Amino acid sequence: MISPRKAVVLLSGGLDSMVTAAIAREQGFAVLALTLDYGQRHSVELEAATRIAARLADEHVVLALDLTQFGGSALTGDLAVPKSGVGEGIPVTYVPARNTVFLSLALAWAEAAGSRDLFIGVNALDYSGYPDCRPEFIEAFKRLANVATKAGVEGAAFRLHAPLQNMTKADIARESERLGLDAGISHSCYDPAPDGSHCGLCDACRLRAKGFAEAGLVDPTRYAGQPAQ
Asked: Can you give the residue range of the structural domain that contains 89?
């Protein structure tokens, strides 16, 4: 039986995914939060995802998927995380086909759960240049979802929501404030300090700090040092 008010939300533990989950709830969906433990460099974001899910999700699945077997990224291998600022091109923190893999798993859960709605917190304005955050990717996956599933070919169309797609990081910080979220429980850093604080220098930290500064909001993030922008 179709349950149109359920939505599978990819929940990484970062600010973007937390805001996305809250938007799904605001739109009346029961949130099925999916977190991938894919062998990333640290467990801090998984802990953040658990905290967020406790507040926003109706169900939370943490799925183990060891992408270190493939490597190819500073987040799943021994490559150094860049700390010199957001540059041109696709950085080494790109995980090969990550959002394609993650959305495919979200699609499988949605079909099994009788949901036809998927949410992902990508944005293509203030971001690190990943190809699987672009509007072209989102549109292509929407088409794929409806030819790759039993539900889709039988006419029960899937909808892929990317509510942050055209937001800047400042917009996302403001949205977090509007939704009454505690942004401090989220975690965005690619290379956190041993105590779990944000490094303040990686692309994710720079973009996060820039967003709060441009929004004119207090940044609740715990940084190891003064964040760079």
From this structure: 6-215
SS (H, E, C) 94-155: CCCCHHHHHHHHHHHHHHHHCCCEEECCCCCCCCCCCHHHCHHHHHHHHHHHCCCCHHHHCC
For 186-210, the pLDDT digits (tens) are 999 999 999 999 999 999 999 999 9
Calpha distance 110→114 (Å, rounded): 6
Report if residue 79 sits inside a domain: yes
pTM reported for the whole predicted model: 0.93
How many independent structural domains does the chain possess?
Answer: 1
Q: Is 170 contained in some domain?
A: yes
Q: Is residue 223 part of a domain?
A: no
- 160 exposure class (CB count in 10 Å sphere: 0-12, 13-18, 19+): buried
Other beta carbons within 10 Å of 39: 18
At 211, list the tokens.
């967003």
